[in-house]
TrEMBL record:
It comes from the Eukaryota. Coiled coil: none annotated. This is Small ribosomal subunit protein mS33. Its main location: mitochondrion. The keyword Cell inner membrane does not apply. It is found in: Mitochondrion. It comes from Bos mutus grunniens. The gene is MRPS33. InterPro entries: Ribosomal_mS33 (IPR013219).
C-alpha cells in the first residue's frame, strides 16, 4: 500500500491548490515560472508606481509661489502675453472666445 488512493491524491492536490503550492511534481524550469507568478505583479510594487514625484503637488506649489512672487516662469509669462495679445487684437476664434473671457481658462491665469 505504498501508493496513495485516488481520494488521498485528489485531497493532496486540493490542499496544494488552497495553500498556493505546486499540485504536481514539477521540474526546475516550471518552478521558475511558478515562482514568477507567485510574486507580486510589477505594476503593484511600490518601487514601480512611486518612481516619479507627485507632479500635481509640485505644479500647485509652483503656482502658489508664482502668485506670491517667489518664482517666475518664462514659459507661463509668454503664455500670459499671448492670451492677452490675442484678446486685445480681437483675433480670437469665436468658439475660443469664452476661454479669454473666462479668467480661469487662460493658461496663464490657472495659477
Amino acid at each position: 500500500m505504498s501508493s496513495l488512493s485516488e481520494y488521498a491524491l485528489r485531497m493532496s492536490r486540493l490542499s496544494a491548490r488552497l495553500f498556493s503550492e505546486v499540485a504536481r511534481p514539477t521540474d526546475s524550469k516550471s518552478m521558475k515560472v511558478v515562482k514568477l507568478f507567485s510574486e507580486q505583479p510589477l505594476a503593484k510594487r511600490k518601487e514601480t508606481y512611486d518612481w516619479y514625484p507627485n507632479h500635481n503637488t509640485y505644479f500647485a506649489l509652483m503656482g502658489i509661489l508664482r502668485s506670491v512672487g517667489l518664482y517666475r516662469s518664462n514659459h507661463v509669462n509668454i503664455q500670459h502675453k499671448r492670451c492677452k495679445g490675442k484678446a486685445c487684437k480681437g483675433t480670437v476664434h469665436p468658439l475660443q472666445l469664452w476661454t479669454f473671457l473666462n479668467p480661469k481658462a487662460c493658461p496663464a491665469n490657472r495659477n
